[in-house]
Design goal:
OB fold (Dihydrolipoamide Acetyltransferase, E2P), 244 residues, 35% helix
């Protein structure tokens, strides 16, 4: 079940957006995807109260709201409910660059909703479906099933590779990095070095000195021969996440 919610202090617009989403979910989303639309929220406090007992997978979030604005709520969500995917919806296009700090999936303009909503919804649902998929690994001790979204990166060492996860667990498996690349090619992973394959979703920052910082604060080296292709792939990844 994928839960979609809206937070906008403009009641009329929130209801309009919900109507658009209901129509798109009914006609443009594959039947195999189980979706639920939560009642609209009109303040950040309402969202947080709901999240204390429920989950929101996708949140369409207004920015210019009284009391607690969308950016402030997004900061809280990133820290406390990081699995909630944020899509900013705003009348102020100049907010798009400021929104990058909160790693939204996309930025929709209210004045272009008819054009931008449908493709964005399709992409974010595809992401939810892919991220909730799991992969089976044969570790040196046992078989483990890991969600794609929980994997930070892989590190190769000879005929073995290590899996590093969000919860801090590490797994050692027998296998090659080349075979891993093949397994992961439909997901947002990139081989930045002969020894590292990273989940681009968990990159905190990319440094000009050839290193990147993961959200776990682990620093990884990007090989010189892969740096250019990595930057290109990462920019494409970012553009898919944040569209004007």
């Amino acid at each position: 079940m994928i839960t979609i919610a809206i937070c906008d202090d403009n009641v009329q617009f929130a209801c309009l957006l919900k109507q658009h989403l209901q129509r798109l979910c009914a006609y443009d989303v594959p039947e195999r995807v189980d979706l639920r639309l939560a009642p609209p929220f009109f303040s950040a406090d309402e969202v947080l109260a709901y999240l204390s007992e429920n989950t929101i997978d996708i949140l369409f979030l207004d920015i210019d709201m009284p009391s607690v604005n969308g950016f402030e709520l997004a900061k809280t969500l990133c820290n406390v409910y990081p699995d909630t995917i944020i899509i900013f919806v705003s009348s102020y296009e100049e907010f798009v660059y400021s929104s990058f700090e909160y790693c939204p999936f996309s930025f929709l303009r209210k004045s272009h909703l008819d054009k931008e909503l449908s493709p964005t919804l399709k992409r974010v649902i595809e992401r939810c479906v892919l991220e909730n998929e799991s992969l089976l690994f044969n570790t040196i001790d046992q078989e483990v099933v890991l969600r794609v979204k929980d994997i930070l990166f892989f590190e190769g060492q000879g005929n073995y590779f290590y899996i590093y996860t969000q919860c801090g667990k590490e797994y050692k498996c027998r296998g090659t990095m080349k075979s891993l690349e093949k397994m992961l090619e439909r997901y947002d992973f990139f081989r930045i070095h002969s020894a590292y394959i990273v989940n681009m979703e968990h990159i905190e920052s990319v440094r000009s000195n050839g290193y990147l910082i993961m959200k776990s604060q682990r620093q990884l080296n990007i090989s010189k021969k892969r740096f250019s292709s990595f930057k290109s792939a990462y920019m494409q990844f970012i553009r898919r996440r944040v569209s004007k």
